[in-house]
Amino acid sequence: MSSAIFAAVFAFFAVAILVWALKHLSATLAVRYQETFTSSARTNLFDMFLFIEPRQLFWLNMITLLSVPFIVRIFLGSWIVGFIISIILAIIPRFAYKYLHTRRRRKFVHQLPDALNMIASSMQSGANVSSAIEFMAEEMEAPMKQEFQLFQREQRLGVEFNTALDNMLKRIPEDEFQLVTAGMQISREVGGNLAEVLLRLSSTLRRKIEMEGKIDALTSQGKMQGVVMTLLPIFIGAVLYQMEPRSMGRIFTEPMGWALIALIVIMLTSGYLSIRKIVAIDV
Question: Which keywords does the record carry (predicted)?
């Protein structure tokens, strides 16, 4: 009798210690995840001139991550699939930031020829570099407008012209803009005709962008094939699930089905990335 009581007491304290340790560990991980998420969101959103409160994004993200397993459990009857989807959703923000950065930089590059033409035209009309840039920044749309207005603010605070250009290049690390900054800096240092240099750069960049557009048009069919071949198995699986829910439901509830889902995801991802690499042509 005494040994049974001792075992029960020992088990009680062991469970209590385990619960306390898990609670402490989960609280620590939650705080660390919140700090990492908000810090990354604040930095990335600031770089893209998106003034959104990071804490609001964090709580929206947490509500989504915690609700997805229950929603999947209701419709598919599997906790495992719900947790897998939550893990995928947890890492999506990192790729979303990268996608938004890339899209913003490409839009900036496409605006460069017109911006350089405006600066060169203003300089040929008698304006100096600062006035020409100010006029261009007022007329252009974001992100060109935002970046050059920040460039002007830095100059007003005493930052040198070349240093302000280098700071902008760090925010827009594109080869086209590196060519522009190098041309502007060299022209200012050696005393060349900056307006003529900018016009030549504008013409060169415009031809390059046109060539990239033609290549994108020619490779768009291959890109679409990659998307279709990736989504087709998922569509077929959804149709089969509607036709035979009992048989297809075993994929989401049995270990062999989970392994099959993981294999499908790996193969589809590998195929899609391979097609994207084949049709990606650098100019």
Answer: Cell membrane, Membrane, Transmembrane, Transmembrane helix
